[in-house]
Input
Amino acid sequence: MNEGAKILVVDDTPLNVKMLADLLTFKGYQVSTAASGAEGLAKVESEHPDLVLLDVMMPGMNGYEVCQTIRANPAHGILPVVMVTALDPGQERIKGIEAGADDFLTKPINQPELLARVKSLLRIKELYDTVQSQAKELDAFNKTLSQRVDEQVTQLERLGRLKRFFSPQIADSIVTGGDELLKPHRREISVVFLDLRGFTAFTESAEPEEVMRVLRDYHGLIGPVVVKYNGTLEHFAGDGVMIFFNDPVQIEMPIAQSMRMALDLRDNFAPLREGWRKRGHDLNLGVGIAHGYATLGAIGFEGRWDYAAIGSVTNLSARLCAEAKGGQIVTNEKTLNMAELQVDSEPLGEFNLKGFARPVAAFNVLGFRQ
Output
């Protein structure tokens, strides 16, 4: 543990200095020497030893005075100092303790005792140094903790605000620095388009407050279900809502997931529809689902950005939704055939859809086979 530690030997007798230096060097320590108290103090300041072997009887400053001077500097408060004396051990020990010494050796020096005491004191100092280092690290950590907590709170607040305008997946990507996901990219997605049958006629006769109430109920039903199935809410405009799967977070079975969400919405829509019916509103849910490639990313301008999916797959989903009767989940043949699970469906024939040159074979999704 203490190999390579620096030891300063302070003694005015060259023979003693050589004997101690040779022994300690042989044991792997780095040894420096001083022939007087003043020289020893200078080396304590310049070389920062790990332990000092200090002779008591020296001309000029004796060992007690040197030890007192060392202890007067708070920076050396834990520096081990071992007093070496040929005088009466009992009397010298008291003086040494008063001066601030940590241990004592009596001349002639017993080498095993010397090495044992040096090793013990260096171990204590090393442990102290470790504690001091950890204390400094803890202090630095505490100084930055408040700042980091404030930053995290700000990030959470920002995420909360973003989730009011974006789907959770997009909000998380923005907050965590996922800017690459927001750049235009091409990916295969499943798109679900929803709107209400009879909504246009309803808005023509209903008061604006009642229209807003219906939309709040409608969006309040959709939101939790979209989050439950990890869908990305692309936009909602009145009763028209578009959701897609497999971006920005990729999922294993996007078509099956989109159909599960649509079936869940259809089943949970029934009580809402019944409540509206009792208030005289004849509204029902239509759903369109399509799967294909689209270009996705952030569109807009500084201060106002949306996350959009652009491509024929989004148009196909919207057109199929427009053809759906109340309670129907309409998809095309290609999407139905690509569904990862067995799906019960019924054919609806071919639709001539705006923007598509050929008729599109359509099917009503009834549910998944058990």
User: Anything to note?
Assistant: The CA atoms of residues 260 and 334 lie 18 Å apart. The mean pLDDT is 86. Residues 6-133 form a domain with the Rossmann fold fold (CATH 3.40.50.2300).
